[in-house]
Amino acid sequence: MSDITFRSFDIPDDITDDLRGWFDAVGLGFNQKQASDEALSRWREEVGRDGWRLDGAYAPASELSLGAHLPVATFATTTQTINTGGGHLEPACFITDVTVRTTHRRRRLLSTLMDAALRRARDEGLTLAALTVTEGAIYGRFGFGVATEHHTAELDTGPRFGLVHPVEPRVEMMHTDASVAVRREVFDRFHAATRGSHTRLAFYDAFLSGAWDFDKGGPNKAMRAAVHLRPDGRPDGILAYEVDAEAETVKVRDLLALNAEAELGLWQFVAAIDLAEKATTRRLSPTSVLPWALTDPRRLKLTGSNDFTWLRVLDAPGALAVRGFDADGEATLEVVDPRGMASGSWRVAARDGRAEVTPASDAVVQVDVRGLASLYLGMADARVLAGAGLISGPDADVAALGRLFRTEQPPHNTSGF
Ligand SMILES: CC(C)(COP(=O)(O)OP(=O)(O)OC[C@H]1O[C@@H](n2cnc3c(N)ncnc32)[C@H](O)[C@@H]1OP(=O)(O)O)[C@@H](O)C(=O)NCCC(=O)NCCS
C-alpha cells in the first residue's frame, strides 16, 4: 500500500476533475454504466446540500490507467441525525459510497478508510455511525450491528380488498413537483416522532418526485403523488407511486403516514386505482396497522424482510445518555469493543425516559459492541442477543438488561443512503 495516497475534500461549487473522478470511481465500484454530465451536476448539488466529505485512495497513474483523478477506493461521510427515542435527534456519522476498485481489493483500503472515519467521528464528539450495506458480511468486523430492518409486502388490491372500518376519503392527488415540499414537511414530523428514523438525504426530493432517477439516468415520468389531509386540511401522510400497467401493479415507492387514519386512507386510495390488481412496497412499517385493518388479512403477504440500517456505537456512555428509555430501571453492562473505541463498564439508571450513565466496576453482563447496536434502537431483545452469543452473563441480569432496553414500538426507518 506504500504507493497509495489518501486525500479528502468537501463538495466544491463547480465540477472539478477530482469531483468527476471520485463520482466515476463510485459508479465503477457499483458496476453502474457511465453517468452523464447532468447526472454528475445533479449529484454535486445534492451531496453539496447534504455536506458530504469525500475520501479517496489514489494510486499512481500510468499511461494505460484510468488517470490520477479516479481514486482506487472511495468513502463518503456526512453528519445527519437518528431518532434515538423520546423525540431525541442525535447527530451521527452517515457513511456511504464505499468502494474499492477490483484491481485493489483486499489490501486493507476499506479498513484504513473506515478506521480513520470512525476515529474522526469519535474525535468530533459523535456517539454513533450508521450505514446501509450491499452485503451482510462486510461491516460486523468494524463493530456495526443491524439496527433497523425493512419488510417487503404485496397487497391484493382486487375485489377482495376491504377494510374492517373503511376510512373517510381525504386524499388528494397532487403535482409531483409540488409534492417535494409537502413530503419534507410530513417527513420532518415523522422523523421527530419515530424511533429509528434516519435523516432523509437530498436525493429523495428528485427521486420521489420523479424529477431525476439515478438508476434511469433521467426523469421518471411514471412517478405520481397523493397526499392525505387532516380534517383541517393539513397534510398528515404522503404517497409516491408508479403504476406498472403491463403487470397491473401499483409500486408504492414511499408511503409516509403520521397516524393510522392517514396510513389506511393512502392504502385505500392505492387499492382504488383501477386497472391494477396488486400493490407492492419495499418499506412496510413494522408498526403498520394495515394487516389488522384488512377484512381478509391474507390479502397482504409479507414477501421478505432484510436488514436496513446498521449502527456503530462510537461512544457508549454518550450514546446511552441520549437514548429514550420506555421503562424505568437500572442495569450495569460492560461493552466489549475489539476496536477499543466504545469499551468500558457503565451503570445505566433510567427514569422518566432518560438515563444517567456512570462508570461501573461490577458489571456481570458483557455486551459485544455489535450487540449493543441491535439493542440500542430496540431492534433485538437482550436474551435473543445472548442466545446468539453477542451478550453474555447470568440469565437474570441479561433479562433485566432486556427489560430496560425494551421499547414500546420497534424502530422504524424509511430513509436509505
Ligand atoms: C466491499 C469492498 C469495499 C471491500 O473492499 P476490500 O478491498 O476487500 O477491503 P479491505 O481489504 O479493507 O477488507 C476488509 C476486510 O473485509 C473483508 N471483506 C471485504 N469484502 C467482503 C465481503 N464482501 N464479504 C465478507 N468479507 C469481506 C476482507 O476480507 C477483509 O477482512 P480481514 O480484515 O479479515 O482481512 C469491495 O469489495 C467493494 O468495493 N465491493 C463492491 C462495492 C460494494 O459492495 N461496496 C459496499 C457498499 S455497502
Record keyword descriptors for this entry.
417 residues; alpha+beta; Aminopeptidase; Nonspecific Lipid-transfer Protein, Chain A; 3 domains; seven-stranded mixed beta sheet; 11 helices; 19 strands; 30% strand; globular; binds coenzyme A
Could you walk me through the main structural features you see in this protein, from its secondary elements to its overall organization?
It is globular and about 65 Å long. The protein folds into three domains: 5-126, Aminopeptidase (3-Layer(aba) Sandwich), CATH 3.40.630.30; 150-305, Aminopeptidase, CATH 3.40.630.30; 316-405, 2-Layer Sandwich (Nonspecific Lipid-transfer Protein, Chain A). 28% of the residues lie in helices and 30% in strands. It has helices at residues 17-29, 37-50, 109-123, 176-193, 203-209, 260-272, 290-293, 316-321, 369-376, 382-387, 395-405; strands at 5-10, 53-58, 73-83, 89-100, 128-132, 145-146, 149-156, 171-174, 224-229, 235-244, 249-257, 278-284, 300-307, 309-313, 329-336, 344-351, 354-359, 366-368, 391-392. β10 and β11 form a beta hairpin. The longest helix is centred in the middle third of the chain and has 18 residues, at 176-193. Coenzyme A binds next to β4 and α3.
